[in-house]
Protein: RNA polymerase II subunit A C-terminal domain phosphatase
Amino acid sequence: MEHTATPITLPAWVQCPVTIEGLYAQQGTEVAKNSPFLRYKYWEYRDDPTQEVIGEAIPEYLKKKVRVELIGNFEFPVAGKVVRLHVRKGQEIGYAGELLAEVLEACAHAVQFGGLCALCGISLEEEKTYSGYSYDDRAPISMSHDTAGLKISLDEAERVENTSTKRLLDAKKLILVVDLDQTVIHATVDPTVGEWMNDKTNPNHSALEGVQAFSLEEHPVLPPLYAGPKPPPIKSWYYVKLRPGLGEFLERVSKIYELHIYTMATRTYAANVAKIIDPEGKFFGDRILSRDESGSMTHKSLERLFPVDTSLVVVIDDRGDVWQWCDNLIKVVPYDFFVGIGDINSSFLPKLNLLIGPSKRRKSIEELEEKIHKDDKTEETSEERGEEEGEEEVVRDHERAASLEAQQQERPLAKLQKDLTSIVAKEHPDDPVEESLLSDDDGELDNLGNTLYKVHECFYEQYSGHQPGPEIATVMPAMKRDVLKGLTFLFLGLLPLNKNPETVDIVIWARSFGAQVVMEPYDYVTHVICKNPGTFKVRYSRSELPDCQIVNPDWLFECFSKWERANERKYLIFEERFVKLSEAEITKYKTSLQRKAPQPEVAKEETYETVDNMDWDDLNKEVEDFLSSDNDDEEDADDEVPESEANGSVKRTHESEEEEGDLKRPKIESVSEDDMDALEKELMQGFEDMESEDE
Structure:
């Protein structure tokens, strides 16, 4: 295998400047490792030995110094033939790192495995020599999915990837990186699932058809300073539900994509799931990368799989944050079959916001899920606490182990089934039929398959047959920006409190499809996206923005899934009894909007970061100025806190004291129509107070 010569440079430990006194090798000489290369002269200041010392020792700052010339030697750190010398006798070198020579080695050790060179077979398990050279530096790149022990050099990585890219282009294929949990499967360790599978009388039995199980013996995570006996491994049963249509999806996309698995789960977990979704190994083969090899437990990187060329790579994942919302990502709606379980392999990641997918078709399940999120008081994750790097892996292993143990001991699915039975009994007291907690109405993979075909078609339409060709990182964003280009969204009651909207998933997701997002009902808003049509801002938008469409969030999720603008008709939200705002109320509110209204921006071609340029500190101060009463606080909270009801009713209930910074919202049991009018009048009075203060 041809390779380039190894550069030999002056090590950093050499005290510069130095002068070359002699050379022990010439150009064309064959040299052995650690054989003499050159002799050099350097100088330093030392204590003057002639200075007399009388009595006590002389302080350091009073000691005389003399310049002393010294001689040093430097040896060849590698063996081979000297093909070029870059220094000569008498030359002065001022800085470390200067190129001294180039040596062509018999083997560059560009492919290494388990401490051995895979090309010549010699052992490379040596510590760095005094020269600073290390064999590990020759092959820094991990190219294998299933082991971190196989590493290659950058030159070898380029050669391998160029060969792979040419092969894929000739076959008119792209690369698809597939996440597992909540993207193509959903898993749990709740033993309730096994009991329901064996009980044909259970209402969930039929929904669990097709669920597969496997067990893993996992060693308990021990504290760092634990010195006791090693406890025996614990057997855990995992229950896996495949996303509907997964087999057909993999069969279809494998014709135009080379498939890879990339998961935050452990290697053993990933291998067992791969056997379930691809028992013959014809889709993924051994192309599986787990957290054991990836080098990170909180982020994923395309460079870990493809360090040189990512131009053909498409990623599908239910989380955008772990990919830093890279341009190669297609974010999918999370698959949530086991209600309330989430991703069992991401307990150490920041919690996702409530709005991550479309509404459940069954109202009782949607109500139950909202209750779950309200009751969720989970502690901060290790990332949110900012653990030290050395503690990171241990802490996150503890978090994952604790999360799995909680599922096994607390049996959340059994509790939710009991809660659901109570909800149904209240809604239908005369029909005490037990409703099933689990059901499967997911159709995401059908839309995802169509999208992947569109991406493939667009890419190869731009490919001329010669490299360099187009890149997925430019092809996909351009396709997405056209979907919602020219639309401006206002989210009401859907964004979390105390969180910058710029960092919320639904906002980032919408902007990636070309939409603008604002925080107030300005006259250029095209869509108000909400669940409760009875709040002040929604009623204002309905009254003053006749061309604005008020839609349920499910409309937006259909746009995301299909990569096309969906028809709004079936998602429009109406009030059963519309309470019209008075002219005085409208005038006052318009005045407040004009003060803080940003100029509408035209969506740019090269970027979609067009959220309103509002100063959030100033905005928060204004809100605190006019929200001077408890009732006013409650009215504004209606536009910030998701409601459990979206049927047009003006009555609503709030949890007691929901905090926003230092501001606490008192509990209001029920708000009548007359009370609402009073609240709105007080809100208008707040605007008048603001105007009077300005005057």
Remarks:
- The chain has 19 helices and 26 strands.
- Confidence is low (pLDDT under 50) at residues 377-390, 603-612, 626-676.
- The two ends are 82 Å apart (CA to CA).
